[in-house]
Design a protein that fits this description.
Layout: E1 5-6, H1 7-23, H2 25-29, H3 41-57, H4 64-78, H5 81-98, E2 104-105, H6 107-124, H7 133-150, H8 154-175, H9 177-182, H10 187-204, H11 229-232, E3 243-250, H12 258-271, E4 272-279, E5 283-290, H13 293-301, E6 305-313, H14 314-328, E7 330-338, H15 341-349, E8 354-357, H16 366-374, E9 378-384, H17 391-397, E10 405-408, H18 414-422, H19 430-441, E11 445-451, E12 456-458, E13 461-463, E14 468-471, E15 476-480, H20 483-494, E16 501-506, H21 512-525, E17 530-535, E18 543-547
Helix pairs in contact: 1-3, 1-10, 3-4, 3-5, 4-5, 5-6, 6-7, 7-8, 7-10, 8-10, 12-13, 16-17, 18-19
Length: 548
């Protein structure tokens, strides 16, 4: 366990954070709806980090002071967009504390650095907006002090702080209506969490070539924010200021004062929004969204020379995103509901476009299903509820989805959902696919093995709390004190001569070697069947059994 970090390790943290963000910048881009839906947050934050890394790579020193100055300077020089500039200020604040370290720092010091990063970032924004990257960094820094007092090693410290950041990220749609309308979390916040996951990976040796897992919406059934459908649903008329305008002011006039920089900031606020004007008498970084970029440049020229001006038409960026999505639109897509990462992965392997987390203990609403369907870029959406208690909500979602035709395939369990998805034929019509899917699900029988939560009498069984019970979609068919015995009894009731394939999907409370041993036992008893097992990862059910 690592209790301190030296300058070499800090350098590695910055590089890993930058690399993980770069590997996932398109995913962050896809979430971008605030302050405007121009789809570039991930790109801007990544370029900001890359500039910091470039400056850092040129630094041969191992002193914290020089390393931190390079990170801070590089991030500011490369800062792009609203999110990139705010990120540069977070790094500047963190580095202002760490540069004073001797040979290493501990978790308490990094907590103080995070607090400084938050303070500097909030100070850089003329009108701080909650529900953004600012909220995420603030809540992380507020929690970091408590984490540092409990967690002396950095692996546990960062894990704790990241968990708090994920919770903060999940709150952003409640704080910013535009995010809630689009059904996404804040893109800048996701970018920041990605960087922090990179920091942790630098210490644990984890591969930063991986894709990020958005764990920020644990209270939402639909937590996969991975496309730009949100952009399509927003009106171009909601973009009040069309031009993202950025530049540096260098070689400031000798007569320029800090008060002049403050006055420039005030003048820019009258021209537009998303104003950031930071720096000193050596260099000033300006970012503003405005309809009169020329005026902003003219104001700046009163203080000094312009360097690296950049003006982007956000209306056109949005049009291009819309056009790209329309060009990629397909006729049919699929949506499945299940609980368990293993089951979700199987659905993805069957080309199901989107997965909603839900099932026995967490049923998604009609609105959740409609929102998820909206995010699939297709005209016809086949929905697999995979639970009899979700079928009605899926049917009600038909009336809520806009510009989508929802076809509910009334699957009552996951094996039926797999069978239905396997029947999908992109060359067939929507009606043909629907008919074939319904027919396919009728050829599958499914059973579940779980535990009794209370004493009861049902279907001729006297059941005690804790008994292992086996069910089909209608009733209890088996019970015992052993999971293995219950599976065998359930199969004895369910298996028919026509069944040729038996598949076990084992849950989160079952070890793989246990499933493998049980699979062998079933194969011995039913030598005429192909028997296989897969990790389902589902809660509640020890096994889901498919017979075909």
């Amino acid at each position: 366990m690592q209790k301190t970090i030296n300058s070499t390790e800090f350098r590695k943290m910055i590089m890993f954070g930058a690399r993980l963000l770069e590997n996932n910048r398109s995913k962050v881009d896809a979430l971008n709806v605030f302050p405007v839906p121009d789809g570039d947050t991930g790109t801007n934050m990544s370029l900001t980090m890359q500039s910091a890394v470039k400056e850092l790579s040129a630094c041969q020193s191992n002193s914290f002071m020089e390393i931190c100055d390079c990170v801070s300077k590089g991030a500011l020089k490369g800062a792009r967009g609203n999110s990139g500039v705010i990120l540069s200020q977070i790094l500047r604040g963190i580095c202002s504390v760490l540069r004073e370290c001797g040979k290493e720092f501990d978790t308490r010091t990094f907590s103080k650095a995070m607090e400084a990063g938050t303070k500097v970032a909030y100070g850089a924004v003329s009108v701080p907006k909650e529900g953004t990257i600012l909220t995420v960094v603030r809540m992380m820094s507020e929690h970091s002090g408590k984490a540092a007092s409990r967690k002396k090693n950095f692996e546990d410290f960062f894990a704790d702080v990241i968990a708090k950041g994920d919770k903060a990220l999940a709150m952003t749609p409640e704080l910013l209506p535009v995010l809630k309308k689009a059904g996404v979390v804040d893109s800048g916040g996701v970018g920041l969490m990605t960087i922090f996951r990179g920091f942790l990976a630098a210490l644990t040796g984890e591969d930063v070539g991986m894709e990020i897992q958005t764990q920020a919406a644990e209270d939402k059934p639909e937590n996969d924010f991975g496309d730009n459908s949100d952009i399509i649903n927003l009106d171009l008329g909601e973009i009040q200021f069309a031009y993202c305008t950025e530049f540096f002011i260098i070689n400031l006039k000798k007569s320029t004062t800090l008060a002049d920089i403050d006055r420039l900031r005030e003048r820019l606020m009258n021209l537009g929004d998303s104003v950031i004007c930071i720096g000193d008498l050596e260099m000033v970084k300006v970012h503003v969204h405005t309809n009169t970029p020329g005026v902003a440049l003219t104001y700046a020229l009163e203080l000094g020379e312009l360097d690296r001006p950049k003006i982007e038409n956000m209306l056109e960026q949005n049009r291009q995103l819309r056009a790209k999505r329309e060009a990629e639109k397909k006729e049919m897509g699929m949506l499945a509901i299940c609980a368990g990462q293993g089951l979700a992965d199987i659905f993805k392997d069957l080309f199901v476009d989107r997965i909603i987390e839900g099932g026995q203990t967490m049923n998604p609403s009609a609105s959740d299903i409609a929102t998820a369907a909206q995010k699939i870029n297709a005209e016809h959406i086949f929905v697999f509820p995979n639970n009899k208690n979700i079928i009605l909500a899926a049917e009600q979602a038909k009336a809520l989805a806009e510009n989508r035709t929802i076809h509910v395939i009334p699957t009552k369990n996951v094996p039926q959902g797999f069978a239905a998805a396997l029947e999908f034929n992109p060359e067939a019509s929507a009606e043909e696919n629907k008919t074939n899917m319904i027919h396919a699900m009728d050829n599958v029988k499914a059973g579940q093995v779980t535990y009794a939560v209370r004493n009861t009498s049902m279907n001729g069984f006297s059941i005690k709390q804790g008994d292992i019970i086996g069910l089909d979609d209608k009733k209890i068919l088996a019970k015992s004190s052993s999971t293995e015995e219950t599976v065998m009894k359930l199969l004895a009731h369910m298996k028919e001569d026509s069944h040729q394939v038996i598949t076990l999907y084992y849950g989160e409370d079952v070890k793989e070697d246990e499933a493998a041993a049980l699979c062998e036992k079933i194969a011995e008893k039913y030598p005429d069947c192909d028997v296989d097992y897969h990790s389902g990862g589902q809660p509640v059910y020890y096994y889901i059994i498919s017979l075909e």
